[in-house]
Amino acid sequence: MVAKSKLLGSVEAGGTKFVCAVADSNFNIVDQIKFKTSNPHDTLLQTINFFQKFEVSAIGVGSFGPIGIKEGYDDYGFITKTPKVGWSDFDFIGTLKTAINVPIFFTTDVNSSVYGEYQFGTVKKDQTLVYFTLGTGVGVGVIQSGLFVGGRSHPEMGHIILRKHPDDTNFAGVCRFHGDCLEGLASGPSLEARTGVRGENISDDDPVWDIIAYYIAQAAWSATLSFRPDKIIFGVSVSSRPGLLYKARQQFEQMSNDYLPLPSLDDYIVRPTIENNGSATYGNFALALFALQKAENINL
């Protein structure tokens, strides 16, 4: 049994920013810090300096990817061939553990998010959830009966190939690996590449949102066919645009064409229930606790 006084750490390692937090074993946040994601050395130094102020017992890390998440494999703990310049083949967990030698649960940032919604959101524990992050990149996490879906590594549905919107055929996409995959067409950088304006500064009535909704609907339809989930959650900056999911549901309904029985789309394609993009942070706390309990049972 984990002592109540023990502290848990969370690292939400995003492509744009890191969010580091510490909580007690009841998941009450003690302290939190956010800073820009720069090069690996400087970013991990800030991360380590933050946690060294506390006696954390375990840390949950959710990182942008692709990453190596299978213990026993050569790439475990590494960020692998990521689109994030300068971070490919970086030993994330090895660097962190050298400075802070505690149990660490390492997974993707979107796996952390879906786990946070599973543990703390308004869902039933036997449900299958799919969580998409639409931000600097696009990621997906899937949880079924409390377990992450994945084999050799985590899903990479952010790079599925889509049917182009009729008004978007001349846009090449921004993914440096695949061009016009889901990430290349629906991430935050894709908005600026099309319009010359950052997404947060684009007006709500700009037709580019109809294009993004079309791609969100395709992502949701692919997830529906692949996993038959109870709920599909879209989180992070792009999907928070007012009215965007409403447009996506309309597009999704046309794509579905009554092929499968589905719940109300208002309850099926949704935003996160945990406020302020906190799903990953709370998911990391729960995963840190899991790692700590596993380590303590092994050492009994």
From TrEMBL:
| SUPFAM superfamilies according to UniProt | Actin-like ATPase domain (SSF53067)
Q: Which UniProt keywords apply?
A: ATP-binding, Carbohydrate metabolism, Kinase, Magnesium, Metal-binding, Nucleotide-binding, Transferase, Zinc
The major lineage groups are:
Bacteria, Bacillati, Bacillota, Bacilli, Lactobacillales
| The UniProt record lists the keyword Magnesium | yes
Family, as annotated: Belongs to the ROK (NagC/XylR) family.
What is the species listed in this Swiss-Prot or TrEMBL entry? Oenococcus oeni ATCC BAA-1163
A Pfam family for this UniProt protein?
ROK
MF terms (GO), sorted A to Z? ATP binding; fructokinase activity; metal ion binding
The reaction(s) catalysed by this protein are:
D-fructose + ATP = D-fructose 6-phosphate + ADP + H(+)
Q: What is this protein called?
A: Fructokinase
Q: Which cofactor does it need?
A: Mg(2+)
Name the source's superkingdom: Bacteria
